[in-house]
Specification:
Length: 732
């Protein structure tokens, strides 16, 4: 359907951004603190795309969220509506997102029209979608590195009001020497403005976020920064039984009686000291504390969950950069010591047979899920160090580097070598190649002592890429090919067990302040009071493998922030992502005539790997974005965005189970899927969005009124199949 969305913005300062993406020369310029900004300090050419915030903040279809400009760059696979994106075929959780090299818990709110960062808090961002530098770790996909504004000359601000939330940013100098402060916040209120449009069973999402940055210019060559970043989201739903005997009016019977309460939040606090004693030396020391929190309580049939999870770390990071031979050799390195904190308590849920594509939460004969009590608390080391050299001679540039990581919760140390090589001709033609190894720690719940596999290893990837880039005037074109391999991917595993393990459902009263007569006491919701447990399922393994490969094309025209004319870019990605979880499966025909016990299946899984390689669930063969902006004068701006996506692969539905189980007096028809997983694609997704901006300029600033028209040719797009449990399967 088509949508017209009017919104307004008011600014008190006409802020301009000065970092450009045009070709960087090797001319030296003196920056803050006397630091010489030279060509030897340029960032990588290969597998890196840089965009200024002023280039993306008015892209149509993003609802004014500049960070969604990431989704228009090569190699980025984002859902047509909103959700987590993938980079070059890596899993959605394999990416690293940083703000001034500081972590954030998540990028978008539960109501995903809004990000957790104010547009004008960010100056620019770099997307590394291939071989990224060694200072970045804990990622096997890509890195999104955002830089905040670092130059505040006078007091100013910006506020934005919409139907669902409002945000504001204010900033001002603290001294003539270069110190400043920046504060931003957002608050939602759709429970007041949009309540009548939201079903009564759903409590409108509530969320807020905040960003604060403070700089003290201690001396000419020393600066001190303070950061405070955070966000919180709250959501609840309770689907009450309201029988009307009208299938079109009632909710899907599988959801009747279901309820969920969800909270999540993160907080990042940091202090950073930057010292540039000479034009060739820079040193940074950062103290930081990062907390990522989530709480979920809910029930759907036999699925019952009530858990609190907190991860994060307190750490110190040291970075050193030294220009060993000006304009020719640059050496950089660093180390980070972290105290990793993990807490996971309550109850979690596990699917007993992960190879079952359609588990039924109302299966009372042979339940598909089990509830597991969890009680994990851990404080352990997570340390890293890295070293990189950069050598440049005329047009030749070589960047070898190595990274070391040790993650104590899984007792593993890894060494990741990486390197890039490029040559730039006098015609501004660049040839590039890169290769590297990368590791990522598993998600905390997967290596849980009570509900997961504490013997998991880090996930591993190897990236290879090569490309060519041509720059001329304010145009550039880049073509890259890549192939990425993935090893030791964490997958759900219904077969892996441990022969013996301590019973974490028991409290050791000798170590507890509450002394009792019994040596051990069963925790609440505990299942077994035996000190030792035998043949316990571990639920996860490192059996997953995969790869992705493809070609990217990026054509861009750049304008300076205050320049009139046409700007924009065209990005195209041709790619495929393949996966194999190596989980033994029994065919439907064999299961009809044979009874196979769990032990027999477990033995067969050790002897016979019959799993098939399939497309990844998020794979898209073709991804194209066309972004065009036109600035005819200082009062008007017009933007266009056309987007094309191949459908994700789906597993065809071939029938139903006959409605064997029911809920609240309604039969539940569970789908039966084809045994050829991810073998079907639907029609491609494409749409055209348009945005028109009108600027009213005043002495104190300007007002920006704009209108967006989404999907203007009313394309009926479909991205995935849906299933209603209220009625049996039909091909019509």
């Amino acid at each position: 359907s088509g949508i017209i969305q009017p919104r307004a913005e008011v600014r008190t300062e006409n802020q301009l951004v000065t970092i450009l993406t045009s070709t960087v020369t090797t001319k030296q310029n003196v920056g803050p603190g006397g630091l010489v900004v030279s060509g030897i300090r340029d960032k990588e050419k290969i597998s890196r795309y840089q965009v200024r915030i002023d280039e993306v903040k008015r892209i149509p279809g993003t609802f004014g969220e500049a960070i969604r400009g990431i989704e228009t760059l090569p190699g980025v696979n984002a859902p047509p509506t909103f959700g987590n994106f993938t980079i070059r075929g890596a899993n959605p959780n394999a990416n690293l997102i940083l703000v001034d090299d500081l972590p954030i818990g998540y990028l978008y709110h539960i109501f995903p029209l809004n990000s957790v960062l104010h547009n004008d808090f960010i100056k620019s961002f770099d997307l590394y979608n291939g071989v990224f530098p060694v200072q970045y770790g804990n990622a096997t996909g890509g890195v999104v590195s955002m830089e905040t504004i670092d130059d505040v000359k006078k007091f100013g601000g910006h506020s934005n009001v919409s139907l669902w939330s409002s945000n504001a940013l204010f900033k001002g100098p603290t001294s003539a020497a270069g110190g400043y402060w920046i504060g931003a916040a957002r608050y939602s209120y759709m429970e007041r403005t949009l309540r009548q449009f939201i079903p009564a069973e759903i409590s409108p999402p509530r969320y807020w976020d905040y960003q604060f940055k403070l700089k003290f210019q201690l001396t000419q060559d020393q600066s001190l920064y303070f950061y405070l970043l955070g966000s919180k989201d709250v959501f609840a739903a309770n689907v009450r039984p309201k029988p009307s005997w009208d299938p079109t009016a009632e909710p899907d019977p599988i959801f009747i009686g279901a309820n969920v309460n969800l909270e999540r939040a993160y907080n990042t606090t940091a202090i950073r000291h930057v010292w540039t004693p000479t034009a060739r030396l820079e040193n940074k020391i950062t103290l930081l504390d990062f907390r990522n929190y989530s709480y979920i309580r809910g029930q759907l049939g036999s699925i019952r969950v009530n858990q609190t999870r907190e991860t994060g770390y307190t750490g110190i990071r040291e970075e050193l950069l030294y220009e060993l031979l000006p304009e020719h050799i640059l050496v950089s390195g660093g180390a980070e010591l972290r105290v990793f904190n993990y807490r996971f308590t309550g109850e979690t849920i596990s699917q007993i047979d992960p190879t079952n594509p359609a588990p039924n939460p109302y299966n009372t004969t042979n339940p598909d899920f089990e509830t597991i009590p969890v009680s994990d608390r851990s404080t352990k080391a997570y340390n890293s160090a890295w070293l990189q050299a950069k050598a440049r001679w005329k047009g030749l540039e070589f960047r070898p580097g190595v990274r070391y990581e040790y993650f104590a919760p899984v007792r593993q140390a890894v060494v990741d070598p990486r390197a890039t090589l490029s040559y730039t001709f006098e015609t501004k033609t660049s040839l590039m190649a890169a290769a590297g190894t990368f590791h990522r720690v598993p998600d905390a719940e997967t290596y849980s002592q009570t509900s997961g596999n504490p013997n998991l290893k880090m996930e591993k990837a190897r990236h290879y890429g090569a490309g060519i880039e041509q720059a001329f005037s304010n145009y550039s074109i880049k073509i890259e090919g890549f192939r990425h391999y993935y090893y030791d991917l964490v997958v759900e595993d219904g077969y892996i067990v441990t022969q013996i393990k301590p019973n974490n459902d028991l409290i050791n009263t000798l170590k507890s302040p509450e002394k009792t007569a019994d040596r051990f006491v069963l925790r609440p919701q505990g299942r077994d009071n035996s000190p030792l447990l035998y043949n316990q399922r571990l639920n996860y393994s490192n059996d997953g493998t995969g790869y992705s490969e493809g070609v990217e094309v990026f054509l861009k025209k750049t304008l300076k922030p205050n320049e009139k004319g046409i700007y924009g870019w065209i990005s195209y990605t041709n790619m495929r992502a393949r996966r194999n979880d190596h989980q033994y499966t029994i065919s439907r025909d064999f299961a009809k005539t044979n009874v196979v016990s769990a032990d027999e299946r477990r033995i067969a899984s050790q002897l016979y790997d019959n799993a098939k390689e399939t497309y990844a669930s998020f794979d898209r063969t073709h991804i194209a974005n066309v972004i065009v902006g036109w600035k005819p004068d200082e009062e008007w701006q017009i933007g266009f965005r056309w987007r094309y996506l191949t459908s994700i692969p789906v597993t065809p539905i071939v029938g139903d189970d006959g409605g064997q189980f029911s809920n609240n007096g309604r039969n539940i028809y569970n789908p039966v899927y084809s045994e050829d997983r991810f073998s079907k694609r639907l029609a491609p997704y494409h749409r055209l969005d348009v945005r028109i901006d009108k600027f009213f300029n005043y002495e104190w600033g300007y007002t920006n009124l704009y209108f967006e028209a989404l999907n203007i040719y009313l394309r009926q797009n479909q991205d995935g199949e849906s299933w209603s449990s209220a009625r049996p399967y039909s091909r019509t």
